[in-house]
Design brief:
Strand order of the largest sheet of chain B: 1-2
CATH class of chain B: Mainly Alpha
Distance between the termini of chain A: 41 Å
CATH class of chain A: Alpha Beta
Order of helices and strands of chain A: EEEHEEHEHHHEHEHEEHHH
Number of strands of chain A: 10
CATH architecture of chain A: 3-Layer(aba) Sandwich
Order of helices and strands of chain B: HHHHHEHHHHEHHHHH
Largest interface: A-B, 36 and 22 residues
Number of strands of chain B: 2
Number of domains of chain B: 1
Helix content of chain A: 25-40%
Strand content of chain B: under 5%
Oligomer: heterodimer
Shape of chain A: globular
Structural class of chain A: alpha/beta
Structural class of chain B: mainly alpha
Shape of chain B: globular
Number of domains of chain A: 1
């Protein structure tokens, strides 16, 4: 049985159908990439899965249970955590306190939650900033904090919304390593990403959407050669750059 | 015990000894300092820590005062018990308000309007209820005894108010270091992000508003039995709602000592300047002074005066462990 099943998911904003009858699955342990041009409906898919938007029709099933009609906090409790594309740190409290909020979801004891949070902060390479206010962090570190917090809720499936956007190549490579390690610990990952370097390196499978509909699905190396994908998203330069 | 704790114990010892040396008038000022620090701390739970601005906290003061006095006058119930009845009633009203606000996602100014509306509606309703004294209010009969929460002189009130302030400080400290407090702060900082991390924001918002209302109502009971007079306009009115939020704002919202510091600065200023200016025929002048101070603090010290006091006290605060 798939870990997450999306069945004919549809969401419209007024006359605009942002997600249009989309169906796909994520298997346990998998890393699935979601790509597509700006405005294709990627973040709307995330919002529908994580409970921030109610879908108009269709179903989201996580471990055999429907997640539609549930509130975001209860979906997170079931083991499905997300990050936000526009990061939402708790600005006036420290990095440690930020991560502890996530850790307290499963750990009632504040001191044990603190120890867990410190471990995750260390793992994410944020140790030097442990006591700093989150508002002072530069964007690349805020993205890591966003990931650290979600990770602290001990998810089975992690939805990552453009965690690599705005990072330089070295930072992207570091993050690729971290995400791979998270996946090795048994966490499935569903990521929206424009940084193709990250998508190609991490995804076992990729879904491409445009105008809310799936236009391609398959292995990353096959998908980038698909004519519809090149037309809609990558552009011809991508292929010539990849081939040379 | 570190040096900061030692300082606090020292301050508490000095405050406990003050009645031996101070005049009745000055003790009265200290009672008001403790009382407003207590109210500010109660308000701080909802607005400072959880981030929902209430401009109608007089509602809970009024409920606490009227409930305990009503139960004492009509059923002979001791205010010591009646104050908790008032607290529970205030919590229930707050939960109704909270349900409307939090369930339907009223944020920012819309939530503020809701809190004002509840307080104002209650003020008008109480003003028309005969057994609650309607417009003219209720005078309490003076029958001093511990059971009646009535005393000769200021000294017992002084110790009760001091105890209430210290207990509210302890309560908020316990909240602050618990899971509850951490979730409340997360909601204040970003409600959506808190939801995404599995925080049942509705539940924690409801808990915060219930605690805040309960604490505030106990203050109302104290005030009624100190002043011996209840009036709907002064107990449910906007004036009191504004008065009680100025101290935590000036001192520092969402901090443990902000409301206390704010009260130690603003309350004496208010009392002394009121007396001084009204002698010169300038009634209301102290409110202008107040306004100016609040504007200056908001402009130049938006996080409250506590931030600067922390700087001075830095040598007393132990280095935190856990990072290297």
């Amino acid at each position: 049985m798939a870990l997450l099943e999306i069945n004919k998911l549809t969401k419209a904003f007024g006359g605009l159908t942002a997600v249009d009858g989309l169906s796909f699955e994520i298997a346990g342990g998998e890393i699935l990439g979601l790509i597509g041009p700006n405005g294709a409906g990627k973040t709307t898919v995330f919002n529908c899965i994580s409970g921030f938007l109610p879908p108009d029709s269709g179903d989201v099933t996580f471990e055999g249970r429907s997640m539609v009609q549930r509130q975001p906090f209860s979906i997170c409790k079931r083991g499905l955590a997300r990050t936000f594309q526009i990061v939402k740190p708790f600005p006036a409290i420290s990095v440690l306190d930020n991560v502890m909020v996530g850790a307290l979801l499963r750990e009632p004891s504040v001191s044990i939650a603190q120890a867990e949070a410190l471990n995750i902060i260390d793992f994410m390479g944020l140790k030097k900033m442990t006591r700093q206010e989150a508002r002072g962090l530069p964007l690349p570190l805020r993205k890591r904090l966003e990931l650290a917090r979600a990770l602290a809720t001990k998810p089975k499936l992690l939805l990552l919304d453009e965690v690599m956007a705005g990072l330089n190549p070295t930072e992207v490579d570091e993050l690729i390593g971290l995400i791979r390690e998270i996946n090795d610990q048994g966490v499935s990952i569903f990521m929206i990403e424009h940084v193709m370097r990250g998508v190609m390196a991490l995804s076992q499978r990729v879904i491409v959407i445009n105008y809310g509909q799936k236009i391609a699905e398959g292995l990353p190396c096959d998908v980038v050669l698909d004519n519809a994908v090149i037309e809609a998203y990558l552009g011809k330069e991508f292929i010539s750059a990849q081939c040379t | 015990m570190n040096r900061l704790h030692l300082l606090l114990v020292l301050i508490l010892a000095v405050l406990s000894g003050l009645p031996l040396v101070l005049s009745k008038y000055t003790l009265g000022i200290f009672i008001m300092i403790f009382y407003y620090a207590y109210l500010g701390q109660s308000w701080n739970v909802l607005t400072g820590y959880t981030g929902h601005i209430s401009l109608g906290h007089a509602l809970y003061i009024g409920i606490g005062a009227y409930t305990s006095v009503f139960l004492a006058q009509h059923y002979g119930l001791s205010p010591w018990v009646g104050m908790f009845a008032g607290g529970i009633l205030a919590s229930l009203v707050a939960l109704i308000l909270g349900f409307l606000g939090f369930r339907f996602g009223l944020r920012g100014v819309y939530f503020v309007i809701l809190t004002i509306a509840f307080a104002e509606i209650t003020r008008l309703v109480v003003s028309h209820i005969e057994v609650l004294g309607s417009f003219s209010g209720i005078f309490l009969d003076f029958d001093p005894s511990f059971r009646n929460f009535q005393f000769r002189g200021n000294i017992p009130y002084y110790y009760i108010a001091l105890t209430m302030m210290v207990l509210s400080l302890a309560a908020v400290r316990l909240i602050e270091i618990s899971k509850l407090g951490r979730f409340m702060v997360a909601i204040r900082e970003d409600e959506d992000a808190a939801q995404a991390l599995g925080v049942n924001t509705f539940k924690y918002n409801m808990i915060a508003i219930a605690i805040s209302a309960f604490m505030t109502a106990l203050g109302g009971c104290f005030y009624a039995n100190y002043i011996f007079y209840l009036h709907p306009d002064s107990l449910f009115g906007m004036g009191l709602s504004i008065e009680l939020i100025l101290r935590p704002i000036v001192g520092g919202m969402g901090t443990l000592f902000g409301p206390i510091l704010g009260s130690f600065i603003l309350t004496p200023l208010s009392e002394v300047s009121r007396a001084y200016f009204s002698k010169g025929g300038l009634e209301g002048m102290h409110l202008i002074l107040y306004g100016i101070i609040t504007i200056l603090v908001v402009l130049f010290m938006p996080k409250g005066i506590i931030v600067y006091v922390r700087q001075w006290l830095k040598p007393l605060i132990p280095e935190r462990k856990g990072d290297d």
